[in-house]
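Quick one: structure for this chain?
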Amino acid sequence: MLEKVTSEFPAERWLIIEDNLGIHTSRQTQLALAAWPEIQVQFIPKYACWLNLIEPWWKQLRSLALKGKRFETLGELTEALEAALDYWNVPIGILTAGRNGHKSSWSYWVALALSKTIRKLNERTA
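Got it. Here's what it folds into:
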Protein backbone atom coordinates (compact mmCIF):
# COMPACT_ATOMS: atom_id res chain seq x y z
CA MET A 1 0.00 0.00 0.00
CA LEU A 2 2.88 2.37 0.68
CA GLU A 3 4.06 1.93 -2.89
CA LYS A 4 0.63 2.97 -4.17
CA VAL A 5 0.43 5.99 -1.85
CA THR A 6 3.92 7.25 -2.60
CA SER A 7 3.53 6.81 -6.35
CA GLU A 8 0.09 8.43 -6.57
CA PHE A 9 0.96 11.30 -4.22
CA PRO A 10 4.68 11.96 -4.67
CA ALA A 11 6.35 14.00 -1.95
CA GLU A 12 9.86 14.55 -0.65
CA ARG A 13 8.82 13.45 2.84
CA TRP A 14 5.95 11.54 4.36
CA LEU A 15 4.71 11.48 7.92
CA ILE A 16 2.55 8.51 8.88
CA ILE A 17 0.77 8.68 12.21
CA GLU A 18 -0.04 5.30 13.74
CA ASP A 19 -1.33 3.88 16.97
CA ASN A 20 0.76 1.45 18.99
CA LEU A 21 -0.80 -1.70 17.61
CA GLY A 22 1.73 -4.52 17.77
CA ILE A 23 1.92 -4.92 13.99
CA HIS A 24 2.84 -1.23 13.62
CA THR A 25 5.73 -1.52 16.07
CA SER A 26 7.00 -4.96 15.08
CA ARG A 27 10.55 -5.58 13.90
CA GLN A 28 9.23 -6.84 10.56
CA THR A 29 7.33 -3.58 9.97
CA GLN A 30 10.33 -1.49 10.95
CA LEU A 31 12.52 -3.42 8.51
CA ALA A 32 9.96 -2.99 5.73
CA LEU A 33 9.79 0.77 6.37
CA ALA A 34 13.55 0.99 5.95
CA ALA A 35 12.94 0.62 2.20
CA TRP A 36 11.25 4.04 2.24
CA PRO A 37 13.67 6.54 3.79
CA GLU A 38 11.30 9.40 2.92
CA ILE A 39 8.68 7.99 5.30
CA GLN A 40 8.76 8.92 8.95
CA VAL A 41 6.42 7.21 11.41
CA GLN A 42 5.08 9.02 14.44
CA PHE A 43 3.18 7.05 17.05
CA ILE A 44 0.17 8.35 18.96
CA PRO A 45 0.99 8.37 22.67
CA LYS A 46 -0.20 5.33 24.57
CA TYR A 47 -3.43 5.92 26.48
CA ALA A 48 -4.40 8.75 24.10
CA CYS A 49 -7.02 6.91 22.06
CA TRP A 50 -8.97 10.14 21.45
CA LEU A 51 -6.15 11.15 19.11
CA ASN A 52 -6.77 8.13 16.90
CA LEU A 53 -9.33 9.68 14.55
CA ILE A 54 -9.95 6.49 12.58
CA GLU A 55 -11.53 4.71 15.54
CA PRO A 56 -14.79 6.74 15.51
CA TRP A 57 -14.98 6.17 11.76
CA TRP A 58 -14.62 2.39 12.17
CA LYS A 59 -17.37 2.54 14.80
CA GLN A 60 -19.65 4.29 12.29
CA LEU A 61 -18.83 1.77 9.56
CA ARG A 62 -19.58 -1.16 11.88
CA SER A 63 -22.85 0.49 12.88
CA LEU A 64 -23.90 1.21 9.28
CA ALA A 65 -22.81 -2.08 7.74
CA LEU A 66 -22.75 -4.77 10.41
CA LYS A 67 -24.93 -3.95 13.42
CA GLY A 68 -27.72 -6.47 13.89
CA LYS A 69 -26.98 -8.26 10.63
CA ARG A 70 -25.93 -11.81 9.85
CA PHE A 71 -24.13 -12.66 6.65
CA GLU A 72 -24.26 -16.09 5.08
CA THR A 73 -21.66 -15.36 2.41
CA LEU A 74 -18.66 -13.14 1.90
CA GLY A 75 -20.55 -11.52 -0.99
CA GLU A 76 -23.31 -10.39 1.39
CA LEU A 77 -20.73 -8.90 3.73
CA THR A 78 -19.03 -7.13 0.83
CA GLU A 79 -22.35 -5.69 -0.37
CA ALA A 80 -23.18 -4.41 3.12
CA LEU A 81 -19.77 -2.74 3.48
CA GLU A 82 -19.98 -1.18 0.01
CA ALA A 83 -23.51 0.12 0.69
CA ALA A 84 -22.32 1.67 3.96
CA LEU A 85 -19.39 3.31 2.19
CA ASP A 86 -21.68 4.64 -0.54
CA TYR A 87 -23.96 6.10 2.14
CA TRP A 88 -21.01 7.56 4.04
CA ASN A 89 -19.43 9.13 0.95
CA VAL A 90 -22.41 11.23 -0.09
CA PRO A 91 -20.92 14.75 -0.25
CA ILE A 92 -22.22 16.52 2.85
CA GLY A 93 -19.35 18.57 4.20
CA ILE A 94 -15.70 19.13 4.83
CA LEU A 95 -14.73 15.46 5.01
CA THR A 96 -15.58 15.02 1.35
CA ALA A 97 -13.85 18.19 0.17
CA GLY A 98 -10.48 17.42 -1.34
CA ARG A 99 -7.79 19.40 -3.10
CA ASN A 100 -8.95 21.78 -5.83
CA GLY A 101 -12.59 20.95 -5.11
CA HIS A 102 -12.20 17.28 -6.00
CA LYS A 103 -13.70 14.64 -3.80
CA SER A 104 -11.30 13.44 -1.12
CA SER A 105 -9.36 10.26 -1.73
CA TRP A 106 -10.33 9.14 1.80
CA SER A 107 -12.97 6.80 0.42
CA TYR A 108 -10.46 5.40 -2.07
CA TRP A 109 -8.05 4.32 0.66
CA VAL A 110 -10.83 2.88 2.79
CA ALA A 111 -12.14 0.93 -0.20
CA LEU A 112 -8.60 -0.28 -0.93
CA ALA A 113 -8.18 -1.48 2.67
CA LEU A 114 -11.56 -3.21 2.57
CA SER A 115 -10.80 -4.92 -0.72
CA LYS A 116 -7.52 -6.24 0.70
CA THR A 117 -9.33 -7.49 3.79
CA ILE A 118 -11.97 -9.20 1.68
CA ARG A 119 -9.29 -10.73 -0.55
CA LYS A 120 -7.54 -12.16 2.52
CA LEU A 121 -10.83 -13.52 3.83
CA ASN A 122 -11.41 -15.17 0.46
CA GLU A 123 -7.95 -16.74 0.57
CA ARG A 124 -8.62 -18.14 4.04
CA THR A 125 -11.97 -19.64 3.09
CA ALA A 126 -10.76 -21.09 -0.23
